[in-house]
Amino acid sequence: MIVVFVLGYVAIALEHPLRIDKAATALVNGVVSWALYAFMVQAASEAAHGDAHGVEGHLLHHLSEIASILFFLMGAMTIVEVVDGHQGFSVITDRIKTTNKVKLLWIVAILTFFFSAVLDNLTTSIVMVSLLRKLIKDKETRWFFAGIIVVAANAGGAWSPIGDVTTTMLWIGGQITAGAIIKNIFISSLFTLLVPMAIISFRMKGNVTRPEKVESIGHHGADVAESEKRLIFIVGVLGLLFVPVFKTVTHLPPFMGMMLSLGVLWIITEKLHANKLDHEKHGLNVLAALRKIDTASVLFFLGILLAVSSLQSAGQLGLVASSLDNVFDTTQNAGVYGINLVIGLLSSIVDNVPLVAAAMGMYQTAGEGLFMQDGLFWEFLAYCAGTGGSALIIGSAAGVAVMGIEKIDFIWYLKRISLLAVIGYLAGAGWYIFENSVLGGF
Q1: Considering the domain boundaries, does residue 442 fall inside one?
Q2: Which residue from 50, 173, 71 is spatially nearest to 123, judged by alpha carbons?
Q3: d(CA 319, CA 219)
Q4: Whole-model pTM?
Q5: 255: domain range?
Q6: Structural Rg of the chain based on CA atoms
Q7: How many domains does the chain have?
Q8: How many helices (H) and strands (E) are present in the chain, helices listed first?
Q9: Helix spans in 273-351 (H)
Q10: What is the pLDDT of residues 384-418, one digit of tens each?
């Protein structure tokens, strides 16, 4: 299973030389991994005269979690497409006048950092990459900006209880509280973004070239009134902002709130364009947006998450967590720092959700000490798992989404963004360790 998993990741990384779409490789990887797990369990059951039907239960359990992520992704992408179809993003892009690369990068990065704390890193990445297409014509420059969006989105999501799925898991599980995580992780997360941005600011020169047309290809130049642009933009953004509120109030999965927001936006657009002729409203309704969302990216996500979940069910991720526990002394601060730093970097290879789930299963929340609520272990885990995935483009939900939308090459990201992301990750971690070990916390 591990060999298949590694070969699958290599094939994804070498998508362009192999001329095989990464979605196809990911799907084969995910299904073959589960098939091998099924054969393994079947053989063990026959030897012990047991029942081999447990695999299907494991698969369906993981599929419920995977489906919630995929529906969330599809809902967010559709809402963004509807807003884009109405040229709603011009509400923001028309106010960004600068074409200076450094200034524009700072504006995009700071917006992403704070948006991802309010929305979440996945939704924010989708929205911000859509904005980039209105601001930057050159593909290479746009890819670089998109790479920084991944770093900024993951950094911004880590310090918010609703910004990253792993932070949300720890918040719901009672390992951290909302106020403490915001207070104690914010500066570290900010360092994760500011240090790479400072390095880039000294190296980057020149101006960006804006696309000639504001509207995206495929909208057929639909004539949209300014009032309609603003209305759909406001409804779309409020719909995305509503998702974490809905989750907090109802305790239902986030995709339910996303589906509700999509449904409301759908009704509004239907009523808004009800009296228009077919050619006037072409490309403005939700059905048109659904046809344009990147289905290949959704299938890529499905394959990756299936592959990772198979390793979780087979116990390999648990073995990794146990091995880390044997290497690092978790009774000492240094051991806690070490194990979390490794988990963070591992999350760039293996999805951070099962890694955090494994850590939550291995360690119980104590009444006092390193493992108490809002203790060093849980806070630093939230930071590392949230930001470490930026080291590789397939290491986070935000990265996978951006990779799918912009068709960014794995190797390209590795060469141009990964080192900056790791430097930022270590800078933020260094501040957290310094703050708690030297300053004793604020």
Answers
A1: no
A2: 71
A3: 50
A4: 0.74
A5: 2-437
A6: 22
A7: 1
A8: 21, 0
A9: 286-292, 295-314, 316-327, 333-346
A10: 999 998 999 888 878 888 887 888 888 899 999 99
